[in-house]
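Table S7 (text form). Paired inputs.
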Amino acid sequence: MPGRDLMKRYLFTSESVTEGHPDKVADQICDAILDSIIEKDADARVACECTVKTGLVLVTGEITCDCYIDIPGTVRRTLREIGYTSSDMGFEADSVAVLTAIEEQSKDIALGVDKALEVKTGEEDGEELGAGDQGMMFGYACTETDTLMPMPIHLAHALAKRLAEARKSGEMPYLRPDGKTQVTVEYLNDRPVRVDAVVVSSQHKEDIPLETLRANIIEKIIKPVVPAELLDSRTRYYVNPTGRFVIGGPKGDSGLSGRKIIVDTYGGFARHGGGSFSGKDPTKVDRTGSYAARYVAKNIVAAGLASRCEVQVAYVIGVARPVSLMVETFGTGCIPDSQIADIITQEFDFRPAAIIKRFGLRRPLYRSVSVYGHFGRDDRDIPWEQTDMVAPLKKRIGKAVGSEQVAASKTR
């Protein structure tokens, strides 16, 4: 039709939270407990959950291990590291009550995890772990950022991290641990072109003027993080839009582990299977399956097989091998998605024991990823963020493209 705008233009928004946000406090406590246990007993089974509220931390779950850890001490140490060290914040590490309600892992679950169905039926040899639960997990990668993450969540995490850095370094000593960020990115034909809106809400001391807080957050937090070329005269800034954020942390809102699963993954840009990560040992496929799916998607994109890639993997409790694998490249793949899926099954092993071995997951690395996203980190010690499968994938794709060309020439 004449005059019709053929450009595909839309806005997409993602949020992040700081380490002092109540839900993230709970996640970090769970993963700190997991790290403390797995450091002493690498084969421990841990399914730890946590809730926090004024003066209270409640740790629940199922833990089977051959070691002792000081759970109250681990909780208090974690709270101190976050920054809850004085009563004027409404939550103090040394005075909070720590309650526990922990049992051993169900023996019914252990039956399937200790020895997979394939081993029991003779399809596999050896001591093969079964999946710790049923469910589906997603991994995603795209070329929007250097970390191969979507732009909105990438910037939201960077802003949240910058808030914590400014608070802990003393650059902005009036900030408090709790905070949230949100970034709205404008897309044109599926490519980010500008930032339309930035939201930063930070807990603060009562005596800091709102005008000073807003000016400093724009100049010291937002502008150093968001690339200047993405900001323009139409970009909207919302800093503490209610006008006051003195009461925060667990005093202002209860916190629960596993409640920030979209913050933990792709900011809503990709699908999510529904399972949370923190507090779960590596036999739990909610966690390891998601890590493996991200690793595969990231290597697919890094190898140039697609500019966007989403991988879904699904498991049955007690069974090692996934029941399904799906690949979606949103029309950006250099060969059909079905062929990419075939390549993935040839190059990657999604059995829980294989994932644990590839990534070295029986070690204490979980607290470090429990805040600011489990994906898109430049930390070289995060194994599922590595792109060490690029060369094998390029070799495979060369063969696949070559076979397609041969097949096409035979039909002419």
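Next pair, protein 2 of 2.
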Amino acid sequence: MATATDLARPRTHRTHRAPGALRAPFEARAWRELLHVVTGMPLACVFFSYAVVMVSAGAGLLITFLGVPVLAAGLAGCRGVGVLERLRARTLLDVDIAEPEPVRALQRRGGPMPWMGALLRSGVSWRHLLYTLLHFPWALFTFVVSVSFFSSAWALTLYPAWQWVFPRHLGQPGIRLGPDGATIDGTTRIGGTYVDSPPEIALTCAAGLVLLLATPWIVRGLTQIDRLMVLGLLGPSPLATRVRELESDRGSVADTAAADLRRIERDLHDGAQARLVTLAMDLGLAKEKLLEDPQAAADMVDEAHGEVKLALQELRDLARGIHPAILTDRGLGPALSALATRCTADVTITVDLPQRPAQAIEGITYFTASELLQNITKHSTAHTAHIDLWKTDDRLLLHVTDDGKGGAHTNTGTGLAGLTDRLTAVDGLLLIHSPTGGPTTITAELPWRV
């Protein structure tokens, strides 16, 4: 997502006069994919041989104690193969793949035996072994197809440049098309025709050019299978990925809760607590002057009464910031309407909810809307804003737009970044579209139930 600075800066795009189909044979991507295919075949041969030997030896020796370490060493080697293959995929195929769970994370204690047990229990290890076995025939097939197409395409395209080799060194006018010579009635007859006339040479060159233009796309289609194999067998499992996401979300929730507690403590210390201390001091002074100067004591009590009202208002605002009573009693519609009255822009609200969502989702939605309206008041200089809230399938969507100056981004402050973390913790999503000059459109998507 672009920042406000990026949006303000004029961008220059590199234009190409030739279409992509004509540029493909000369682009770096095509050569990287071909390099992946060419280097993959010899590597696959070595990896396949290693996997077959080690797994066969380990399985055969399982009747003795030696089979376990041999099989574990084979699986460890396959995981090393995965490291190299992920590196090749990132470098040559532009595949963004995460590292799988390491073996040490599966160990309950140190030592060689727990390490071997973790290797044998790990589904990642066996998926790496499966990749090593399946990749060999596929790498051999893609190597033969890609190299054959590539070499034939360039040979035919450049045929006019090397056609002179045939008459000078081979004793024939050019490439022969058709069957070889046959012996009939004891006489050898030359079969086929030769490509030696200018029209035939031009036609051969044109056919080579067509094949040259098609070869990068053929290789790209073949390497798509390599990408799928790497992502499916060498990356982390969906379950492990989900566990990592939940751990990250748990950390975000803990950080958010800690930040909220610090905010509440700060508001109490700097607000209501300070006023109550002042109130106690004023009442103490009024008590001392009650007999000496009743009028001065009455004035002090009157000031203390004003301080009590302010302290009560601050406590109400603080309680509303923790969880507003109107949200608990009447739901999101009235609660958002109460929020809109505190925004400097003219806010209109549309709520279309068949029923109330889960209480936790309702609270997150409320505080998301509150943060967005505060941003409108503090930063956008908007005159009008609109809030849409509706349910679609099992998702709750909050859509906030304003006609302000735009430039909102998660990198420009802590507010939107905190909202993103809070929504991510419940499998939510925050989408921001805020070009410089406006308007700003922010959509929050949350699950209906948690």
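The CA atoms of residues 155 and 189 lie 28 Å apart.
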